[in-house]
């Protein structure tokens, strides 16, 4: 934009602080997009139009306040952009972490159900082995009784009804 663009209209006469604020608000359409040279040109032009020292001070103050306002807007916009970018990064990281937690929970659930299934299988196997052991103990006792009856001895290891000599 040229130095005399419509956005440069900072006033041609001294302005009270209330009017200066209203003019700054009207001019805030694009002052943050001005270049440094455009700000310098606006300052020089407005001061050169002054009709005295007090008028020049008021005009310089007006331009500098508009410049300060433009810098604040630019800084706020830059900070907002940085925060928006950071928020996007954090949102992506949060999504990644949520997926990781879901995967870990799935793995733990799978391992838990797998170990529960293995535990049930082993318990049933133990029950089968206990039943088989009981059956074998009964068979052993039955065979011992049959052997005893067949040999006619009082007990296994007893010769002629007496325990064997230990010595």
Keywords:
single chain; 167 residues; mainly alpha; rod-shaped; disordered N terminus
Structure description:
By secondary structure, the chain is mainly alpha-helical. It has a domain at about 5-100. The chain contains 3 helices and no strands. The protein has helices spanning about 15-25, 35-50, 55-150. The radius of gyration is 50 Å and the shape is rod-shaped. It starts with 16 loop residues before the first helix and ends in a 16-residue tail after the last helix.
- Distance, first to last CA: 125 Å
Structural class: mainly alpha
Share in helix:
over 70%
Order of helices and strands: HHH
Mean pLDDT over the residues: 80
Region (Disordered): 1-34
What's the gist of this structure?
This protein is mostly helical. The protein has helices spanning 17-27, 36-48, 53-151.
């Amino acid at each position: 934009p040229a130095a005399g663009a419509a956005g440069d209209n900072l006033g041609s006469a001294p302005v009270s602080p209330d009017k200066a604020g209203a003019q700054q608000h009207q001019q805030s359409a694009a002052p943050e997009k001005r270049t440094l040279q455009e700000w310098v040109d606006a300052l020089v032009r407005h001061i050169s139009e002054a009709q005295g020292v007090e008028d020049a001070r008021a005009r310089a103050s007006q331009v500098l306040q508009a410049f300060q306002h433009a810098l604040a807007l630019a800084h706020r916009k830059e900070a907002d952009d940085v925060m928006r970018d950071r928020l996007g990064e954090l949102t992506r990281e949060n999504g990644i972490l949520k997926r990781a937690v879901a995967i870990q929970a799935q793995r733990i659930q799978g391992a838990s159900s797998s170990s529960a299934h293995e535990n049930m299988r082993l318990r049933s196997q133990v029950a089968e082995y206990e039943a088989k052991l009981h059956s074998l103990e009964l068979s052993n006792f039955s065979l011992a009784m049959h052997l005893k009856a067949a040999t006619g001895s009082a007990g296994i290891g007893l010769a002629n009804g007496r325990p064997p000599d230990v010595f």
